[in-house]
Design brief:
The protein is of the alpha+beta class and 372 residues long. The chain contains 13 helices and nine strands. A five-stranded antiparallel sheet has the order 8-7-6-5-9.
Length: 372
């Protein structure tokens, strides 16, 4: 059964996972073709192209478990569906909790791939993906600072629903350029309160979940909204969500704001702690969770190779990477490098648009198939 092609099927630098056909079934793009330009993507999205769905065989299902990327993709799609009409979905609360548990399990199983998904995985809906990214980071930070299991689940649920009041509106803003009108600013300021009420109407009675949604824009110095809370009046889980919300938004591409490099955002978060806007312990926990060079980011090594960070290292500044190219010559297979070795130390983080990105990078985190 064919279905309309989406941006998730057309990730820049990745191989197309199935044949893409026109309305009459003629093949436009063969499976395995590398997506190399935005123009190519926009053409396929605009011409009504469809992706051909092959029924998986029992052997396929047994030979390769879903990757962390695939699991997070699927959970994002499930969250998008659940968020369409939360007040009408009788199992909304249970659905979101189930997504939160599965997401936390994926993070625990492969934290490096989970972090990499934040930097590598585009999607049709920025608003939903932003919530998933924030939930991943909340889970990692909460673990480091000793938030207990029940509060962590509430925090992850809060992250997954923090912008429930204006998901479609947020996507529209993400595609726009220019300033906000007074009405738009008011909508943004009210969304935590409206989101809390939507959740209550949908059956959420977990005080911490509701608190995280209501308070995720409050700041320690009292400059946040909607209630202007300060200091210990803001629950710690909500403080975590506030920090990761800011980080996740700033490292994501948006029409009205350039995507920031992770280390620049981290440095700015640390600077903000001196002004009392966020807790220094939580900012440092986020940096510790990600490393100075997070998985999924691109870097230049001292030997001038361009590489992608694959795994965090023993030290925050020396992750394990795979070198992709040297002097514009792409390596046939990414080469493993340990950046703790002086000859392969990291010189700088690189914006994605400065890297010749090969297809199939997700395979660097693929699980090993079970032996027959």
């Amino acid at each position: 059964m064919d279905r309309p092609v989406s941006k998730n099927d057309l990730r820049l630098g990745d191989e197309v996972q199935a044949d893409i056909v026109d309305a009459q079934g003629a093949v436009l793009v063969r499976k395995g073709t590398v997506v190399e330009s935005e123009t190519f993507v926009e053409f396929l999205l605009s011409c009504g192209a469809r992706t051909r769905q092959d029924e998986p065989t029992a052997f396929d299902a047994m030979s390769r478990p879903p990757s962390t990327f695939e699991t997070i993709d699927a959970l994002g799609s499930e969250l998008a569906q659940a968020s369409l009409r939360p007040k009408e979905l009788t199992e909304f609360v249970g659905t979101v909790r189930d997504i939160a548990r599965k997401l936390s399990a994926a993070v625990e199983k492969d934290p490096d791939a989970s972090i990499a998904s934040i930097f590598l995985v585009p999607c049709d809906s920025y608003s939903v993906r932003h919530q998933v990214h924030s939930a991943i980071l909340c889970d990692l930070v909460a673990d480091l600072v000793g938030i207990d299991a029940l509060e962590r689940l509430s925090l992850v649920c809060g992250a997954l629903t923090m912008n429930l009041a204006f998901l479609e509106y947020q996507d529209c803003l993400n595609e726009r350029t220019g300033g906000l009108s007074s009405d738009e600013k008011e909508t943004i300021l009210k969304h935590p309160l409206i989101g809390e009420q939507i959740l209550i109407t949908a059956g959420v009675d977990d005080p911490m979940w509701l608190s995280c949604v209501r308070n995720h824009h409050e700041r320690l110095d009292g400059s946040g909204y909607p209630d202007g809370l300060s200091g210990d009046a803001i629950p710690r889980p909500a403080q975590i969500l506030q920090i990761v919300d800011v980080f996740s938004a700033r490292v994501s591409a948006r029409s009205w704001s350039e995507k920031e490099l992770a280390n620049a955002t981290m440095a700015d978060l640390l600077r903000s702690t001196t002004g009392g806007r966020c807790d220094p312990e939580l900012a440092k926990a986020l940096i510790k969770a990600l490393g100075a060079f997070p998985p999924g980011c691109f870097v230049k090594l001292v030997n001038d190779e361009n590489a992608i960070v694959v795994h965090r290292g023993q030290k925050a500044t020396s992750p394990l990477v795979r070198s992709l190219s040297l002097a514009h010559v792409r390596y046939e297979t990414p080469v493993a490098r340990d950046t703790s070795e002086s000859g392969y130390a990291i010189k700088a983080l690189l914006p994605q648009d400065q890297v010749d990105i090969p297809g199939g990078l997700r395979s660097l985190w693929e699980p090993v198939p079970p032996k027959p």
